[in-house]
Amino acid sequence: MEQTRLIQYLKILSAKEMDLLAAFVESAYHNRNNRCIQLLQVLQPHYPRFEGAGVAKEKVYARVFGKEHSYNDQVMRNLCSRLTDLIHRFLAIENLFRQSVLPDVYLLGELNQRSAYHLFEYELKPARQNLEKMPVKNEDYLRSRFGLELEAFMYYNRRHPDDVPAMIKQKNLNAGIEALGEYYLYYLLNHYLFYLNARNIYQQPFEQETQWRHTIEALWQTLPNVSVPVKAYYLLVEMLATGTEKYYLQLKQLLRDFAPQLPDNDVRNCYINLENYCMKATRDGKENYLTELLDIYQTEMQLNTHLNPGESTVSVMWLVNAVLIALRTGNIAWAETTLQQCHEILPQQVQTDVYHFCMANICFYKQQYNQAMQFLAVAHPNYYYSTIDIKCLLLRIFYEKGEFSLLYAQIDTFKHYLTNNEDSFPPQRIANTGNFVKFTARLAKLKEYHLTDAEIANEIATCPQITFRDWLLAKAKEITD
Known about the structure:
Helices cover 73% and strands 0% of the residues. By secondary structure, the chain is mainly alpha-helical.
């Protein structure tokens, strides 16, 4: 049964949710099939892995129906399907009641349908109070506010059908319509942000961009006072779409002032995109953005947005990038301290490799090149850092050690690797790395044969796509000096 949809659903539940599901399934209101209750009782002791002979279909069937009944696959499938349907309903109800106000909106809608006007009037005021108690004015707030005020409008229309002027003047209805506009703007910005990042990373334009920008701008100009989350996403989109620094600075200040008013996911999303903006700026030659990047990583650590959503584990990508940027800005002590604090709360499956990769980089910046090589030898590439990252560090180690024959051999294999893996990485990544390899090879020749090149520093500085520009410029300066 390990591969069935039923088991897959059970695996995504927390231990507390498993207990709640058991009570849900045992409720006669939701379920009157005792076999479903028995099936869940048989499976529950195998939570959370649901592995081994204990979850074999035949054995589970025998425990539910009794050993005297021979196994019937169709009956077993039907029973699993019924229990899966109950889990669907359980998850939907759990999701509904996690929303602060949405249950109130549905209740008001039901009272409207039943013409229960006195009850509607009684429930409307606390529903509005619950709405304003929401700690952050996120998309749930905007959607709920519109839904709530729409129900209030429908109630007024039914209860006082002849009082049209008063109905039209309702301030709450106008506020609800504005909330609907904000809700749509919020989602437009979110989806546009996805396409912008895809465009910037993979250099793929999308046909609807002009139309989307016109729609976003029209809504933005129409809405008088947007909430903080909507404003944050608007600045974020403008920053990525135009590359203008003023939007970066405005968004950074907005997050400093209002982060507590933003949902955690929105804060995390904004900071990730600030990181991306700064990384692109450094690749474009604006080295001051390395310091900006470090400031962002340190702020994320203070806000705990460096942790994975809903978990106590640290984001692997965040830790790797934070350590590397700290090293590039000369903050070796912070890089070491952060790695020691965070590596034990990395996801277990990558903990050792990520630690070795980060330590290899720390040793490199401490000029402990042999130790760096030892750590690098046991840092296996994965999703969070690739063979490209390992080879880039290896090239710099060989260069610093003056081991030119090994360096040239590594450069040749690196070039072949980039050519053979063009489709495995974004075009920008290939171009940035290719230029790094090219300039490293040129610098190595100059260093090995004690030659000079008056133009190489300027070529590195003006190269539009390159990684580790700061290191290359430092090596060029050593040669010209």
